[in-house]
Amino acid sequence: MAIYTVVRAIFRTLFVLFNNLYAIPTYLVWMAILRPLLINHPGLFNKIEGLGYSWLLHFVASWLWTGGYTLAECGDDVTDLVDSECLVIGNHQSTADVPMLMYFCSNDSKPRLARNLYWVMDVMFKYTNFGWVSSVHGDFFIRQGQDTRQTQLIELKSHLQQVYIPRDRKWILLFPEGGFFWKRKESSQAYARKHGYPVLEHVTLPRIGAMQTIMETLSPKPLSPSSSTNNIHAVANSFGDAESIHLKKEKHLKWIIDITIAYPKGKPLDLLHMIFGSLEPCQTVMHFRRYRAEDVARTGDALLKWMYDRWVEKDRLLAHFYETGKFPILPISEGIRNDGPKTLPLKWWWYSLLNVVFFLSACLHLYISSAVVSAFLDFLS
Q1: Is the separation of the CB atoms in 254 and 86 below 8 Å?
Q2: Could you count the other beta carbons within 10 Å of the beta carbon of residue 25?
Q3: What is the pLDDT of residue 155?
Q4: Residue partners of 173: CB distance under 8 A and separation at least 6
Q5: Cβ 320 vs Cβ 262: under 8 Å
Q6: From CA 130, how far away is CA 55, in angstroms rounded?
């Protein structure tokens, strides 16, 4: 059994590395070739880019699925929100959270969703191999830290106006906790005790800076001058009233989707487990709650209280899940309830076809590149 585990880990590692070597460069080369479309046909380029991006997310999902790490959903059904502007918030436990969300967004039951995602992620992700893809796709990399907080919020607002809106993205994915649970638990609990906030056991207190900036920038309603007293509101006004009014009319948030990610027995997967397949096959469950954006507070203490209420609920949901192996059935927030958990299937033939297409495309690019280099060297000689 030990030999099998080692051989399996080696095989899976080689598979993931090989998959990265031909899939990501293929995407980047095609985006470079099609870049001129941005001048006269930006809408067409964004659709093609979104399609290629969604295919890469399918690859990541296949790494989980082939390792026996499946995903199920329960709670409020969000299938009808695929084409709506949504802010998605969730708890953050490990490096497997992002691949699990990619798995969810590339599932067959959510067509078109993976093409129109907009991630707000830690700047460290920018320097990974998939960070190149995210840069082309137009995701936002946020730098953590007290010293850069206000600057980062200004840049986030500008990025939303320059990328999220023109490219017609739909779901904004954000981890408000600002770090992994295991890293922030102790400091979060100390902060909660000091300031009289709820002391949570399975999640950490969320931060509202990025969420407030997103809510204000994409708000469907004008903010009154007295609705915010902090610097973020001043930042929101610094781009001009006419532009803000135009943005609110053309594109605004319609829904807030709250996801609670639960791993079996509270032991999350991580990126290495996902690649090696070193843990026993298991199922991760995502619990969904949906709220109309217009009903959620957008600024100051009201937004902080709303977020803390959600995280207190999240803490109770996870406590119940870790004790019983399933989420409790809550009153429906909006729409249709999906009591579940409903396993999200993947089509092996589709992933096989994508691998063939990307591999052949990489071979074509390599052949053309070598021919060009050879011709250039012959010219020089």
Answers
A1: yes
A2: 17
A3: 96
A4: 88, 90, 101, 117, 118, 119, 120
A5: no
A6: 13
Of 77-91, 106-120, 225-239, which has the strongest mean pLDDT? 77-91
Closest Cα partner for 297 from 204, 195, 228? 228
Distance CA 26, CA 359 (A): 8
Q: What integer pLDDT is reported at residue 1 of this predicted model?
A: 62
Which pLDDT value is given to residue 243? 41
**CA proximity to 33, closest of 378, 260, 381, 369:** 369
Distances (CA, A) of 134 to 35, 179, 362: 16, 19, 20
| pLDDT tier, 145 (very low <50, low <70, confident <90, very high otherwise) | confident
Q: State both tokens at 35.
A: 């870049």
pLDDT, mean of residues 222-247: 41
Position 261 confidence tier, pLDDT thresholds 50, 70, 90: very high
Q: Are 234 and 70 in contact (CB under 8 A)?
A: no
CA-CA distance, 173 to 214, in Å (whole number)? 11
Query: Rounded to an integer, what distance in angstroms lies between the CA atom of residue 180 and that of residue 124?
Result: 13
Q: Decide: 235 and 158 in contact? Cβ < 8 Å.
A: no
Contacts of 215 (CB under 8 A, 6+ apart): 87, 253, 293, 296, 298, 299, 303
